[in-house]
Amino acid sequence: MNILRSKNLFARANRLLRAMRLEFAKPDDAWAQSILPPLEFAVYASMDARDREHAVRVTQYLQKIKPDASPILLRAALLHDCGKQLRPYKWRERVWAGLQPMPKLEFDSALFVTQKRSPTALELRALHPQIGALLIRSAGGDPRVAQIVERHHQPFDDADAAWIHAVDEIE
What we know:
By secondary structure, this protein is mainly alpha-helical. The protein has one domain. The protein is 66% helix and 0% strand. The chain is built from ten helices and no strands. The protein is globular. The protein starts with a helix and ends with a helix.
């Protein structure tokens, strides 16, 4: 096991411990508000405190390793997991879903937004980038921010989405 992989496992274990109790989460919402415009901050503020804390850590680490990161990239990093807000935060469910093979699912916005059906834990794991992009667009957020969020798990040739994917994997 290389050093990067061992640090990744330590970071994930640390994140799991913090995720067990809501009161352990200490997101820097004031810092996030200084980065996000009001419409996007409203989406961020709707996230669970544990997801907001994770988003801030991802964004601050991204800013540290890529000091020339654009404001759009930083905003997308803060919102990369905003699609998870459609289901109440249950850490046991998230751990279980994380241990399952990633399902191949088609995103149907009407299913979750129009019909207001809560996604299952596996659906949330697979579709939160698309759900998040829809939430950002619906709130009047920047289309490029939404696009990066939508691609952050499958960045292909999108360099901005690849940065978030890489930092998210480390954090």
